[in-house]
Amino acid sequence: MDSSSTRRQVTRQKLYEAAVTLIAEQGFSSTTVDEIAERAGVAKGTVYYNFKSKTELFEELLRHGVGLLTASLRAAADETEERGGTKVEALDAMIRAGLGFIDRYPAFTQLYVAELWRTNRAWQSTLLVVRQEAVAVVETVLREGVDNGELSKEIDIPLTAAALVGMVLVAALDWQAFQRERTIDDVHSALSLLLHGRVSGRR
Amino acid sequence: MDSSSTRRQVTRQKLYEAAVTLIAEQGFSSTTVDEIAERAGVAKGTVYYNFKSKTELFEELLRHGVGLLTASLRAAADETEERGGTKVEALDAMIRAGLGFIDRYPAFTQLYVAELWRTNRAWQSTLLVVRQEAVAVVETVLREGVDNGELSKEIDIPLTAAALVGMVLVAALDWQAFQRERTIDDVHSALSLLLHGRVSGRR
DNA sequence: ACTTTTGGACTGACTGGTCAGTTCAAAAGT
DNA sequence: ACTTTTGAACTGACCAGTCAGTCCAAAAGT
């Protein structure tokens, strides 16, 4: 993460890690600052020395995590681009990147989904910005695909982007929570089949 | 349940309605029983006369809501069956039914998604049962479709069911939260296009 | 070399408020 | 007669945020 490994950075990182799992399991409100501090192996005061409030800690956590996700999606898209792949291939690569992210940071994903559609919460505006960054990456690829004729002009870009993201998110969380025995490749090919429209039996 | 007393049922219904919107907005832990009672226009004592605890109220809410959803999905599937429609048509009808449900009970959907993948919570077992009921309806249709050759034998039924449910859920929540101007038909056709594999530009 | 000062990082007991759940006598509803 | 609801007061656990003080390594002073 942050290259300048000052003492402070190390502490913040420990706090992120402690907070993300606790909040994913219990939700924001029923996770106490004492718990976070204890899990991070740090005194409660340290939390407040490093963050203005419990909410601010959480918001920075969100920014941090979504930053990692969008970076990973963009990398997948760019890499396909460089290889001269099609846009559908880019989408496929992004699905895989998304699954990889969720596999590596399941707690973060859980927490993100749980908070995303809540209204009236302190961090709504942060979430909105951060969501748009992630969805925009998918929308861009869809738009390019429509422009070069590879994708149907009929598609509704924002809605399709949302549906694709949702498909990946929910399938992956379900996999993590209820179907642990599957491999990431199982999940990827199930989603790939849907993306390529090969669910109905023709061919 | 106790079909005897109508008065009690009315009170419980008012409490469900109050609780569902408040919890969807704020989450379970930061919603107080006093708030729920006030919004329902009922005394606090009444809450505890009708439910053992705040948690129990919430669990019954979950059961109640998912009951409505599965009933609506099953109705859509059965109706298509009776009309002699194909399985893909049944899936399409279920997507529409799902969207209709989310449109009618957005708060419930929000709350369900927020809680579904949490681990270590009091009501986890309730959620697990209730989730399985809903997903099973989709899995059944997929299985029948594979059996009669209408759907590809390649598909992984549990994963595809999860992905389809996720697609609908997330697209609909996004629609409700961020793209209110769209109609339910916009959303339905975007999802339908995906289901039929007509995203790639061929015809 | 040696003492002293500085300041960033951390500590943990404490405070003030909040909230689930209880109690109960009286009223309302059926 | 009986079930259900009311309303308001009360308890005790719990928790976000505070703050006076500790720790320590490196800089400054002698």
Automatic annotation (TrEMBL), chains A, B:
What does the record give as the DNA-binding region?
32-51
Is the keyword Phosphoprotein assigned to this protein? no
- Domain HTH tetR-type spans what residues? 9-69
**From which residue to which does the signal peptide run?**
none
InterPro entries to which the protein is assigned, alphabetical: Homeodomain-like_sf, HTH-type_TetR-like_transc_reg, HTH_TetR, KstR2_TetR_C, Tet_transcr_reg_TetR-rel_C_sf
What keywords sit in the KW lines?
DNA-binding, Transcription, Transcription regulation
A Pfam family assignment: TetR_C_24
What PANTHER family does its record include? HTH-TYPE TRANSCRIPTIONAL REGULATOR RUTR, MYCOFACTOCIN BIOSYNTHESIS TRANSCRIPTIONAL REGULATOR MFTR-RELATED
According to UniProt, the name of this protein is TetR/AcrR family transcriptional regulator
